[in-house]
Amino acid sequence: MKIIVLIKISLALLFFLCLLNMPYGYFQLVRFLAFASFGFLAYRANEKDKSEQVYIFLALALLFQPFYKIALGREIWNMVDVVVGVALLISIFIPKKRLAD
């Protein structure tokens, strides 16, 4: 299994677990792991010249960054977690564009 797929599945699972009543330390851990993972995904997308993905992953890294808490409220964060988790899972199954068509 590719590392990118493993990262996306792991992040999606972490985001879905955020819907449960978890201790605050779990949310801090998720923010740090999401920040690092989205930064890595942005780096890998940049290597493959996928500029739209670079911007998306950088925006997500900034949204989930652990250094300055973005207070959106529990309900909105739950929606963000679900949308991002589902989008990560869907992105695994989107077929790659062939360059030599």
Written account of the structure:
- This protein has about 100 residues and is mostly helical.
- It is about 70% helix and about 0% strand.
- The protein has four helices and no strands.
- The protein has helices at about 5-15, 25-45, 50-65, 75-95.
- Helix 1 packs antiparallel against helix 4 and helix 2 runs antiparallel to helix 3.
- It is globular and about 40 Å long.
- The two termini are about 25 Å apart.
- The mean pLDDT is about 85.
Question: What are the defining features of this structure?
Answer:
101 residues, globular
Summarize the biggest pleated sheet. none
Radius of gyration: 14 Å
Averaged pLDDT, please? 87
Number of strands: 0
User: Shape, please?
Assistant: globular
Number of helices: 4
Q: What would you call the structural class?
A: mainly alpha
Order of helices and strands: HHHH
Distance, first to last CA: 27 Å
The percent range for helix content is over 70%
What proportion of the residues form beta strands (DSSP E)? under 5%
Indicate the low-confidence ranges by residue numbers. none
How would the blueprint of this fold be written?
Layout: H1 3-17, H2 24-47, H3 51-64, H4 74-93
Helix pairs in contact: 1-2, 1-4, 2-3
Could you give a short description of this structure?
By secondary structure, the chain is an all-alpha fold.
